[in-house]
Amino acid sequence: MTYAIIYSSRTGNTKLLADGIRSVLPAETCMYFGPVSGAGREAARADVVFAGFWTDKGSCDEGMAEFLRGIVGKDVFLFGTAGFGGSGEYFSRIMGNVGKYLDESCRLTGTFMCQGQMQPAVRERYEGMVGMGRDGDRVREMIENYDRALGHPNEGDVERVKREVRRVADGWGEE
């Protein structure tokens, strides 16, 4: 079974997961590994597509959305990072939004989401919202979430995505 790992990573969070995925799959069957901007024919020829994204307004970024719209008849494993959140419900909602870009001929074989750290400018923006007529409790929650996201994805997150990919890869060739 051949595969491609395509990712969109603005801050390096999603690439870290992509590297973890690559480390547990056989190198000789990899058709493409790299950013979505460079994905071409090699990625399109793979049997399985691992597509990673950073979260933008509750979905994937536009570059990944465009790539996903063009996939036809493939097994797809979606993985991503989100700076805000951390709850399974929020992550499921994101995956649902991203999955809508896939053609009905594709089969979603797995998903993985984890929190990813955000750029310092985000915290600065949140801090600037304090006392500006915004809901103070909500702003404090946003700052606390920013602080919780620091250092993610961490080693545990990478191990979890590797475990999930191994589970999916164990089923290759059984159909």
TrEMBL record:
Q: Which Pfam families match?
A: Flavodoxin_3
| Name of the featured protein | Flavodoxin
Q: Which InterPro entries match?
A: BilS (IPR054633), Flavodoxin/NO_synth (IPR008254), Flavodoxin_CS (IPR001226), Flavoprotein-like_sf (IPR029039)
All residue ranges annotated as the Flavodoxin-like domain in the record: 5-163
Query: Which regions span the lipid bilayer?
Result: none
Q: Spell out the molecular function terms from Gene Ontology.
A: electron transfer activity; FMN binding; oxidoreductase activity, acting on NAD(P)H
Q: Which domain of life is it from?
A: Bacteria
Which source organism? Enterocloster lavalensis
